[in-house]
TrEMBL record:
Pfam families: SMC_hinge, SMC_N. CDD domains: ABC_SMC_barmotin (cd03278). This is Chromosome partition protein Smc. One of its GO terms (molecular function) is DNA binding. Belongs to the SMC family. The lineage of its organism: Bacteria, Bacillati, Mycoplasmatota, Mollicutes, Entomoplasmatales. Homodimer. Required for chromosome condensation and partitioning. PANTHER family: STRUCTURAL MAINTENANCE OF CHROMOSOMES PROTEIN 3 (PTHR43977). Residues 244-348, 583-624, 675-737 form a coiled coil. It comes from Williamsoniiplasma somnilux. The gene is smc. Its main location: cytoplasm. One of its GO terms (biological process) is chromosome condensation. Contains large globular domains required for ATP hydrolysis at each terminus and a third globular domain forming a flexible hinge near the middle of the molecule. These domains are separated by coiled-coil structures.
Length: 993
């Protein structure tokens, strides 16, 4: 039967060139001298079918399967072998194809190794399964070598059993049993682990259930409280909002009326005062103007006389100088030009000096502005830092508070102060404040006073972990070892302390033990307390609204000018009720500070640019002054030279003459201009006299009219002020309530005013009962105390895990039982098939033994008949004319015949599609070789034989021979040859290959 149709090899061992072996017959001989590579064909088949042992392939490691090179042939990097099988009888049940090609490649450089089945990549396990299915495995009789024959007879019974396992198909059952046993072990391991986990969960569940029930009760109370409280607060806010809007509208109307009436009255009073003043001023002005008018007349007359004298002097001077005019004309012209230039330069110097004064003043102003702006930015940065700290403190300390007293978190820490290390107490509990300062400090520090003073930051860490662990709320902590208080220092502090109305800095107005002073300074160090509202406004304005200022009555001015005022019943935290500050003012102030900081930085940059420009211009002007001064000195020298020339020619001093002429001419012109000016002023005085006289009587009439109008308006103003005060008082009360409600909504529910106003609010049949229910739930929540709200989810998760693992445990128990059943079934199947194969071989063995020995008897026996799964196989043989008690007493040839008779009996009992005999008959004498070859021929109907041989008797019985030679040393070449050529090859001297 033809099963293996072709072998293709390239790079495998001595196959240095692509080599194809096409098998067309059932009994094929492979012949050739020793060392020519005959056995490499067998190795190629085994390697392609997944053999991993380098030793089994007659090598040291996997690299040895790749052609290593020869004298004339370089080494190759890759080995590849392909086996082509006929699968028309479906011997490979896992491959649906009439032809099955199995390929294996290995690259020793990249270490890449791959298997292909019909050109598709496959796993080595798939190829090994195919080999197992067809019996082509290492321990089966499909590949029988001389070593297999020689060791079979001498092998221990347990080792000999392996061949029968393969023949019985037990190998696949053993593989399945191994896999099933591994699964069973893993299942039992998983089962043990699951039982441990479930036992641990089971121990924890009761406590978790108890904690979860308490947390559930707490959560249900909280949810019910939130449902009612949210609705009531939202309703209150809407009601307050509606009333606030009404009051705002009314207040705006009355404020506008009051403002309008006040402005009208003030304007009338100012006008009335002006009328009185103007009337008195008119009388005085008329007297002064009449005297002034007479003075102007006298001065004009005197100036006219002076003008005549000046003109006479100028005419006389012109006559005296006329004779010299021609001679000195040229010199005088030059002198005049120099004089004009000199005056021009002096005028230029005057303007430049004025410009220098202006630039210096502007530079000094800009430098001062720059420094002030820089200081303001520094102060603003400190204020932002302080407010951000204050905001963080308020957020941490008040977010979970349900009232104006200590938050749940603070209360929880105080309750645990006996077990928690480093708890000193709230800042409020450590501070003493005089009654007159309590309102002021309460307004600005209600939140920070509820902060917990702690010894160290490590103590704070432990307290925070406690709050987290018990979901007990939040708290603000002041660790004494890390606090870094800030305060107002330097000139600003000096100026504040000298300000009228200044009472003190808040931290100085409270008493505390010195070892806790850092906490007090941190909370109050930058807060200024003043006497009253007016003092606060004045101080804030003088300090450019940089600081937090509070009055003794509780009015508060925040940095950047925001003002908080009014009064509430819970204003004093040192009494029974301790209010908590809202974060709204701080957040708004921080936004304003950010905007202000950007504006100041821009202003600072602009000032620097302008100051630098002024400085550059100042340098340019100073340079121009120096240049002009040089020009003036040069012109003066030129004028002296011209004057000297004039003196030589005319005998006169040109400078003196010119100065006198200029002086007289200037006096005449000046007198004329003065006369004109005085005449104009005289005429203006006359017009004023006429105007004052005509308007004087009007002022008295207007005074009477204004008096009557103001009397009526004052009565109306007083009435409107009373109404406005009433509106403001009601508005303050409503706003106070609204702020508290909004604070509660924001802190407890994270809801803004806008969201509240858009909410649909449920209607309650009895609102009073709902409000009483809120009080009851609040008390109930406090009574429940700290809970671990996560325990609800944790319990549900653990319960779910417990149930899940319980199911898993049960399923694994069932799976383990099934696996144990499978193993038992496998053992039964292996035992049944093994016994069947041994029985079948025992039936065939006598015939095979007699054919190979020419007579005698042989029988297989169990070494452990009661333990078929572990028994070894022994052979009882009696060759013709002999009785043997031990196989070792047989000759080498006889041992080979015994082994062959058993192997052929197995083959008869369980036919294989392919058997490879690699010099299996080598130990036999020629007669037995002939008998062996003829006996093999009997099996070719069901089995294909590939026989590697150098025995003539075997060659003669083969259908076709493949000759294996090494024409080039180290490189195998294969050719089909005739029988006579095979004989010649078989007797060649190996040394001449």
């Amino acid at each position: 039967m033809l099963f293996l149709k072709q072998i293709r090899a390239y790079g495998f061992k001595s196959f240095a060139e692509p080599t194809n072996l096409d098998f067309t017959h059932d009994m094929i001989g492979v012949v050739g001298p020793n060392g020519s590579g005959k056995s490499n064909i067998t190795d190629a088949i085994r390697w392609a079918l997944g053999e991993q042992s380098a030793k089994s392939l007659r090598g040291g490691n996997l690299d040895d399967v790749v052609f290593a090179g020869s004298v004339n042939k370089p080494a190759l990097d890759q080995a590849e072998v392909t086996l082509v099988f006929d699968n028309q009888k479906d011997r490979f049940s896992t491959v649906d194809s009439p032809i099955v090609e199995i390929t294996r490649r290995f690259n020793k450089k990249t270490r890449d190794s791959e298997f292909l089945i019909n050109g598709q990549k496959a796993k080595m396990r798939d190829v090994q399964d195919i080999a197992l299915e067809t019996g082509l495995t290492k321990s089966s009789i499909a590949i029988i070598s001389q070593g297999t024959i020689s060791t079979f007879a001498e092998a221990k019974p347990e080792q000999r059993r392996e061949i029968f396992d393969e023949a019985a198909g037990v190998a696949k059952y053993k593989k399945r049993k191994r896999e099933t046993t591994i699964k069973l072990l893993k299942a039992m391991e998983n089962l043990s682990r699951l039982e441990d986990i479930n036992n641990e969960i089971g121990r924890r569940l009761p406590n978790l259930e108890k904690s979860a029930k308490k947390a559930l009760q707490y959560r249900e109370a909280i949810e019910e409280l939130q449902k009612y409280e949210l609705a009531i607060l939202a309703k209150d806010v809407k009601t307050f909002k509606f009333r606030i809007d009404e009051l705002h509208e009314q207040r705006n109307i009355f404020e506008e009326k009051v403002k309008k009436l006040s402005n009208e009255i003030n304007f009338s009073e100012e006008e009335f005062a002006q009328m009185i003043e103007q009337n008195s001023s008119s009388e005085k002005s008329l007297t002064e103007l009449n005297a002034k008018f007479n003075e102007y007349v006298q001065r004009i007359s005197n100036l006219k006389v002076k003008k005549i004298d000046a003109e006479n002097r100028e005419n006389l001077q012109d006559k005296n100088s006329s004779q010299d005019e021609i001679k000195i004309k040229q010199i005088k012209k030059q002198f005049d030009q120099a004089k004009i230039s000199l005056q021009t330069e002096k005028d230029r110097q005057y303007k430049l000096n004025n410009r220098i004064i202006e630039l210096k003043e502007k530079y000094d102003y800009l430098s001062n502005e720059y420094n002030n702006t820089y200081d303001e930015i520094q102060s603003l940065t400190k204020t932002k830092y302080r407010l951000q700290n204050e905001k963080e403190v308020n957020e941490n300390g008040n977010r979970n508070s349900t009232s104006f007293g200590p938050s749940f978190g603070v209360q929880a820490i105080i309750k645990q102060s006996n077990t928690l290390k480093g708890v000193i107490g709230t800042l409020l509990s450590l501070v003493t404040v005089q009654e007159k300062f309590q309102t002021a400090i309460s307004v600005v520090a209600s939140a920070s006073m509820q902060s917990l003073v702690m010894e160290t930051s490590q103590d704070v860490k432990n307290a925070v972990e406690f709050l987290k662990r018990n979901v007990a709320g939040r708290a603000t902590f002041l660790p004494l070892d890390t606090l870094n208080p800030s305060s107002i220092q330097g000139p600003q502090r000096t100026a504040i302390e000298a300000f009228e109305g200044f009472v003190g800095f808040a931290n100085d107005l409270a008493s505390i033990d010195n070892k806790y002073r850092k906490a007090l300074d941190y909370a109050l160090g930058t807060i200024i307390v003043v006497k009253d509202y007016d003092s606060a406004v004045a101080l804030a304005k003088s300090m450019n609204y940089k600081f937090n200022i509070v009055t003794l009555e509780g009015e508060r001015i925040l940095p950047h000018g925001a003002i908080i005022g009014g009064k509430s019943k819970s204003q004093n935290i040192f009494g029974d009720v301790k209010p908590v500050n809202s974060l709204e003012d701080i957040e708004k102030t921080l936004i304003q500070l950010d905007i202000k900081e950007k504006e100041l930085n821009q202003k600072l940059n602009d000032l620097k640019i302008e100051r630098d420009r002024i400085r550059d211009e100042l340098a340019d002007v100073q340079s121009s002054i120096r240049s002009s001064q040089q020009s003036v000195e040069s012109l003066k020298i030129s004028m002296k030279e011209f004057s000297e020339d004039y003196r030589i020619i005319a005998g006169k001093n040109l400078l003196e003459t010119e100065q006198n002429s200029f002086s007289n001419e200037s006096e005449s012109i000046k007198i004329t201009r003065e006369i004109s000016k005085l005449e104009s002023e005289r005429d203006e005085v006359q017009v004023q006299i006429n105007s004052l006289s005509s308007n004087k009587n009007k002022y008295a009439d207007r005074q009477i009219e204004l008096n009557q109008t103001n009397s009526i308006k004052r009565k109306e103003l007083d009435k409107d002020k009373e109404e406005l005060a009433s509106i403001r008082a009601e508005l303050a009360v409503i706003q106070e309530k609204n702020v508290r409600s909004l604070q509660k909504l924001a802190e407890s529910y994270g809801i803004t005013e806008q969201t509240v106003l858009e909410m649909e609010i449920p209607e309650f049949e009895n609102e009073q009962e709902v409000r009483e229910r809120i009080i009851f739930l609040t008390t109930q929540i406090k009574d429940i105390g700290p809970v671990n709200i996560d325990s609800i989810v944790e319990y549900e998760a653990e319960k779910e895990r417990f149930d899940y693992y319980s199911i898993q445990t049960k399923e694994i128990h069932e799976a383990a039982e099934k696996l144990q059943t499978i193993i038992k079934d496998i053992d039964i199947a292996m035992e049944t098939q093994f016994k069947k194969v041994v029985d079948d071989v025992n039936l065939a063995l006598p015939e095979a033994f007699q054919k190979l020995f020419g007579g005698g008897t042989a029988k297989l026996i169990y070494t452990q008949p009661d333990n078929i799964l572990e028994t070894g196989i022994d052979i009882e043989v009696n060759p013709p004319g002999k009785k043997i008690s031990n196989l070792n007493l047989l000759s080498g040839g006889e041992k080979s015949l015994v082994a062959l008779s058993v192997l052929f009996s197995i083959l008869k009992a369980r036919p294989l599609p392919l058997v490879i005999l690699d010099e299996a008959e080598a130990p036999l004498d020629p007669a037995n070789v002939e008998r062996f070859a003829k006996y093999v021929k009997l099996f070719t109907e069901e089995t294909q034989f590939i026989i590697v041989t150098h025995r003539e008797g075997t060659m003669e019985n083969c259908d076709v021979l493949f000759g294996v030679t090494m024409e080039a040393k180290g490189v195998t070449k294969i050719v089909k040859i005739k029988l006579i050529d095979a004989k010649a090859l078989a007797v060649q001297d190996p040394d001449n290959q």
